[in-house]
């Protein structure tokens, strides 16, 4: 073999630098994901503490009002303590999701009313407070759970993990549709995305219902919510790919994982989180799904309409973004050029698809 041929086969310094630069650029996405996930999850969950947790003392006599005020004074801003006239009123407000817990004072048998289906962690926080209150009165506390959780979801957190499955199925599908359908028009990609959301929602509902029994009723309503949620992610993601290209995966991770899972209320509700993530819970799509599913399955649809509206508005935002993306793609369409060899076109498309799908798999 000639010396010239050996030299040609060795990578040049320039090509090595280009390869290293390419690797470094590709590493930016997973490194930013690592930083973002750490900041989001640790920021949302690292030091849960109550603030404004809504509880009540049952009874409206001066003695009950003094007890409620004493508890609130000692708890500071951790609790928002009110009084309700009787046990029936307390039950009604808990099942309307207006209260986390209600304390029924008694010299011998004090009772705490809770609904674990609303939030197991919030109920546990309230139980810890009133166990201390009852202990100071020298009586053991009896805890009554007014809700009935599904057999397959004894902690009430299964809906959060359903949210995770729906989210990953949705935003990972964006990468596949965007990479594989780069030559397709916005309308066709959007139609594929809406079809994909149908498949994702059916899979999620089947897993939650007959497979793992996280939900034992209202499966049609749960499916509808799952479709709205998935369709919102897919439409937004497909539209954003027009503008962000290879950074779309990172953007979707920020929107639908970092900010979404942490504010959904699936693990900690707003009263146990800092103000930022607590505020997101009021309008983010993951919170709309989790809280809406809780209302549908466990609380006779209390507040259900508002959560559905949240999911609908996210889908509307996705459809509007798709319209903007379609206009942008039409204006950016290049003038007709000579057709490259078929093999070159296919190689380029394959490389782009592999790179984008690689980013999604890295998630």
Describe this structure in words.
α7 packs antiparallel against α8 and α8 runs antiparallel to α9. The two termini are 46 Å apart. The protein has 14 helices and five strands. Strands 2-1-3-4-5 form a five-stranded mixed β-sheet, with helices on both faces. It has helices spanning 3-9, 13-45, 62-75, 87-95, 120-136, 158-180, 186-211, 219-244, 248-258, 260-263, 275-280, 285-298, 304-332, 342-362; strands at residues 53-58, 79-84, 101-104, 111-114, 142-145. Helix content is 66%, strand content 7%. The chain is elongated and about 85 Å long. It is α/β, with parallel strands linked by helices. Mean pLDDT is 89; it is low at 341-354.
Indicate the overall shape. elongated
* Quantity of strands, as a count: 5
Q: Considering DSSP H and I runs of 4 or more, what fraction of the residues is helical? A: 55-70%
H/E element order: HHEHEHEEHEHHHHHHHHH
Question: In what range is the share of β-strand residues?
Answer: 5-15%
* Structural category: alpha/beta
Low-confidence stretches: 341-354
Radius of gyration based on Cα positions? 27 Å
* Mean pLDDT score: 89
Distance between the termini: 46 Å
The biggest beta sheet reads:
5 strands, mixed
What order do the strands of the largest sheet run in, or round the barrel if closed?
2-1-3-4-5
Number of helices: 14
Entry keywords:
single chain; 5-stranded mixed beta sheet; 14 helices; alpha/beta; 66% helix; 7% strand; 5 strands; 363 residues
Map the helices and strands.
Blueprint: H1 3-9, H2 13-45, E1 53-58, H3 62-75, E2 79-84, H4 87-95, E3 101-104, E4 111-114, H5 120-136, E5 142-145, H6 158-180, H7 186-211, H8 219-244, H9 248-258, H10 260-263, H11 275-280, H12 285-298, H13 304-332, H14 342-362
Parallel strand pairs: 1-2, 1-3, 4-5
Antiparallel strand pairs: 3-4
Helix pairs in contact: 2-9, 6-7, 6-8, 6-9, 6-14, 7-8, 8-9, 8-12, 8-13, 12-13
